[in-house]
Specification:
Strand 41 and strand 42 form a beta hairpin. The protein contains three helices and 45 strands. The chain starts with 7 loop residues before the first helix and ends with a strand. The radius of gyration is 27 Å and the shape is globular. The strands form ten sheets. The protein has a 22-stranded antiparallel beta barrel. The protein is mainly beta and 813 residues long.
Length: 813
């Protein structure tokens, strides 16, 4: 089953070399090698990826960890900061151009469009063990995290549905019960500023309380020339959390937290990257005036106000209406723990959360609009989504002697989501494209009905392109245990399984301004097993072989014309890995080689409804179908950390990912020149074949203070950002060509210089002052590109953020 492992030979070679060098007794347990005596040993990392606290190096699964210090060194304020490639296997990108919803992928499993009411991502995102059901709101500020754990590969046994690619677990800092805190204040270019307060209060009668609050702000990196309107790539985030930990004795604890965050942001600017790439004849103004529609082989001219640019635009050539999208997230959770005995702990995790997103996206003002005299343009993509979820999990975590430990649990999840969307046009050309005006926000329909051409963007004047609601309910029971034979303590056998029952239903009640009553139901159960065999080959060396499965739940596409249900994606994964602490814990090397076979891949298809008599005739829709055949994903990952000296630590990581998705049968009839059922090529999005990251940390005492320097560099190959696209039309208006294009490769460097341990008068307080920079070299690359308008104007794309920098003061007391 492992014959496809191109990296397995590399794993075996490195393991054999390490074993020979150490000449260690294989019978000696290798949970942790002894530390060096000169202060140059690497710190041991504790994780909770298996629902219990374990040492990273003795946990036989592929996990990457970013500590709070590492996040601060990168000045990573939210999840979108990880789009620079800090963890090569983890890919984070905007959905479309929007910061208000993030696409998160691991090991080539990346959702194309899960920004809906009845679809899920393939990577689960968790905060303190609580699953977050929607993409919307993921980019809100991170409130005092302790670490990020990236669990690579299917996590179907312990984490369940929608973790076929892996899981991203955010772990917050708990109350300490000791009075003290931290204050952070900073400022930088583009008008940015930050402020944070993290306050712990003294424990009283078993109760400890912690308060977190923050604000983060950045002005636009692409300005809007229209007075009084927002620009692009700006944000203003605020958030707060109150956490109480009640621990009256050693047996019982209850931690309760309430949090709320608000993120006001605008999308990245969509630039026109080329014009007329097919070399069509450019029509004259007289021809365009006579007929706005361009005949085959011709293309309308550009407005003289619009330019083609592959460099990052600092100011849009055209002003337009743009206000920030508003994401509000919040919730309450309670985690109860009771130690029945020294070898058994019972837990309860209860959470209720909600997301409200009001989307305002006019990012493509220059790039997606064909000029025609007096025509309207400026597609304002508006959406209002509201989601509520409740989850309950019971866990039993225990040990039976020294030979067996286990985790078992019951899980329940319930969700309700509703959304409506519209796409009014905000601008209007004059007769020759030398000027434009802004349409009324209230439209121009007067007393008549609202149509696509008369609608405004105020809510009472919108023509709803779609409106839907959906409910999901999930039940699960799971268990996982690890057995270590008394006679072979270097061998550990882990078996696990999870049974899940998913139910989902919904209604698409509006398409293209017309009332509909399309319904879907989904009801399936499945079992996900896990088998993991690990072997302590020598002191500090842990080898493992793992088989696991995972899935992404089925649902329905609310951008479709009929809300037809589709089934789940299913993944089987095989993995070989090695975790090694060498040279007296000065060198850490973790390797993994894997293959994943995915069935029933969920594929999205764009469509224009041309069916005569259809209630949604003329509507632009998107349907999702399960592809036949097997998607094959193969990869190899390596992570290295080395303490070169007491003052210097270096690290490097690499991910190779090869994804092959079978051509999917084209589902439509009549609107394209592609025959229904014919093979249709599909691309994997946001998955570079090669990605790598490296860093250097340096520290040196300066009197009573410490000087620290951090530099990291992150590379990724060019990658697709759309599964498939139609790029031209025939004389009859049918879609005729499928073109998928890649963005650019990327190389992002971040840096940080810090003077720490600055003594402050009284109370033992200390401070640190940092000079930070993101994208230090001001590198420019297209991270998202579309050929959808190639035949009518040209390709458009979004560029990565420019260089940002600033000063930050942190005071600890």
């Amino acid at each position: 089953m492992l014959k496809y492992f191109g990296g397995a030979a590399v794993v075996a070679l490195v393991i054999a070399t390490a074993q020979g060098a150490l000449a260690a007794d294989a019978a000696t347990p290798a949970a942790a090698a002894p530390a060096a005596d000169d202060g140059a040993a690497l710190e041991q990392v504790v994780i909770t990826a298996t629902k219990r606290e374990t040492n990273l190096q003795s946990t036989p699964i592929a996990v990457s960890v970013l500590s709070a210090t590492a996040m601060a060194d990168r000045h990573a304020e939210s999840l979108i900061s990880l789009s620079d490639g800090a963890i090569p296997s983890l890919r984070v990108a905007t959905f479309e151009a929007r910061q208000s919803a993030l696409t998160v992928g691991i090991r080539g499993i990346v959702p194309f469009d899960a920004n809906q009411t009845a679809r899920d991502q393939g990577v689960g995102v968790y905060i303190d063990g609580v699953y977050l059901g929607r993409q919307q709101g993921l980019n809100t500020a991170l409130l005092d995290i302790e670490r990020l754990e990236v669990l690579r590969g299917p996590q179907g046994t312990l984490f369940g549905r929608n973790t076929e690619g892996g899981a991203l677990s955010i772990v917050s800092k708990a109350p300490t019960g000791v009075f003290g805190g931290r204050v952070v204040a900073g400022a930088g270019n583009y008008g940015s500023y930050t402020g944070e307060l993290h306050q712990d209060f003294q424990e009283f009668n078993g109760l400890s309380i912690k308060v977190d609050a923050l604000i983060q702000h950045q002005d636009p990196t692409t300005k809007n020339p229209m007075e009084g309107q927002a620009g692009w790539n700006q944000y203003h985030r605020t958030g707060g959390r109150v956490t109480g930990l009640y621990k009256p004795n050693d047996k019982f604890s209850a931690q309760v937290s309430i949090d709320y965050s608000k993120d006001e942001n605008t999308p990245f600017f969509s630039q026109l990257l080329n014009y007329n790439p097919y070399g069509k004849r450019v029509r004259s103004l007289a021809e365009v005036t006579a007929s706005a529609a361009a005949p085959a082989g011709t293309i309308n001219p550009l407005s003289p106000l619009v330019r083609v640019s592959t460099d990052r635009q600092s100011v849009s050539d055209i002003g337009t209406v743009q206000q920030p999208s508003v994401d509000k997230t919040g919730g309450a959770m309670a985690t109860l723990k009771y130690n029945v005995s020294p070898s058994l702990q019972l837990r309860s995790i209860t959470a209720a959360r909600a997301v409200a997103t009001n989307q305002w996206d006019n990012s493509g003002i220059e790039s997606r609009n064909v000029f025609a005299p007096n025509a309207t343009f400026g597609r304002y993509s508006l959406s209002d989504l509201y989601q509520y979820q409740y989850s309950q999990e019971f866990q039993a975590v225990g040990d039976v002697g020294d030979s067996f430990n286990y985790v078992g649990g019951l899980y329940y999840f319930k969700e309700h989501a509703k959304e409506s969307a519209s796409t009014p046009l905000t601008n209007q050309w004059n007769a020759d494209g030398t000027a434009y005006t802004i349409r009324s926000a209230y439209g121009s329909f007067g007393a008549g009905p609202i149509t696509s051409g008369t609608q405004g963007w105020q809510r009472s004047t919108r023509l709803l392109a779609r409106a839907s609601q959906a409910d999901a309910e999930s039940y699960a029971i799971y268990g996982q245990g690890t057995y270590t034979p008394e006679a072979m303590k270097q061998v550990h056998l882990t078996l696990g399984g999870r049974y899940t029952k998913d139910k989902r239903d919904g209604t698409l009640y509006m398409v293209a301004g017309k009332a509909t009553n399309f319904k879907f139901t989904y009801d399936k159960g499945r079992f996900d097993p896990l088998i993991n065999v690990s072997y302590d080959a020598a002191q500090g060396i842990n080898l493992y072989a793992k088989y696991s499965t995972g899935y992404r739940a089925g649902g329905a596409n609310d951008r479709s014309s009929a809300f037809q249900a589709f089934g789940p994606e299913e993944v089987k994964a095989y993995e070989l890995g090695a975790k090694m602490d060498l040279l007296e814990n000065r060198l850490r090397l973790n390797l993994a080689a894997y293959q994943m076979d995915r069935q029933n891949t969920q594929i999205d298809f764009d469509n224009v409804d041309t069916t005569p008599g259809s209630p949604t005739l003329g509507a632009h829709t998107e349907d999702t179908a399960n592809a036949k055949g097997t998607s094959k994903i193969r990869g190899f990952e390596a992570e290295l950390t080395a303490r070169v000296s007491e003052n210097i630590t270096i690290g490097a990581s690499y991910a190779y990912t090869d994804v092959k998705i079978p051509a999917a049968p084209f589902p439509y009839l009549g609107n394209t020149d592609v025959p229904q059922g014919s093979p249709f090529p599909v691309q994997v999005v946001y998955t570079p074949p090669n990605a790598a990251s490296g860093y250097v940390d340096f520290k040196y005492p300066v009197g009573s203070m410490t000087f620290r320097a951090h530099l990291d560099a992150n590379y990724a190959d060019a990658q697709y950002s759309f599964q498939s696209e139609f790029a031209d039309v025939s004389p009859t208006g049918k879609l005729v060509q499928n073109v998928a294009v890649k963005g650019d490769s990327s190389f992002i460097v971040n840096g940080n210089l810090t003077l720490a341990d600055i003594n402050m008068a009284g109370g033992g307080a200390s401070a640190s002052l940092s000079l930070w920079a993101r994208n230090l070299l001001d590198e420019t690359h297209v991270y998202r590109i579309s050929a959808a308008n190639r035949g009518t104007i040209g390709d458009y794309g979004n560029l990565n953020p420019p260089r940002t920098y600033g000063l930050e003061l942190r005071v600890k007391y």
